[in-house]
Please model this.
Amino acid sequence: GAQPGPAEPGREAAFARRIDPRREPGLSPEQRLHMARVERALQRRLRGRNVLLALGIGAVTLGIYGYTFYSVSQERFLDELEQEAEAARARARARAESAGS
Model:
């Protein structure tokens, strides 16, 4: 027989089926306890990974934000330098013209 595909309605794939250990027949109390412990450990590990991922994304975001601010302030600084240089050239031209006449 052909295996049912994942898109076949009315049937969940075996690996995706979540079981409730309290309602599952044939599990001893020790097995239920073990499953609960394993699940808690997995959740703890996932929470740690999620926290690290969130901190990493936040750090990258703040870095981009800070760099953008820095580069914009540098641009303004360079614009001001350029304006000062232009004013100095204009003053030098005016002095040269007044000295030449």
In short: The mean pLDDT is 83. The helical segments are 29-100. The radius of gyration is 35 Å.
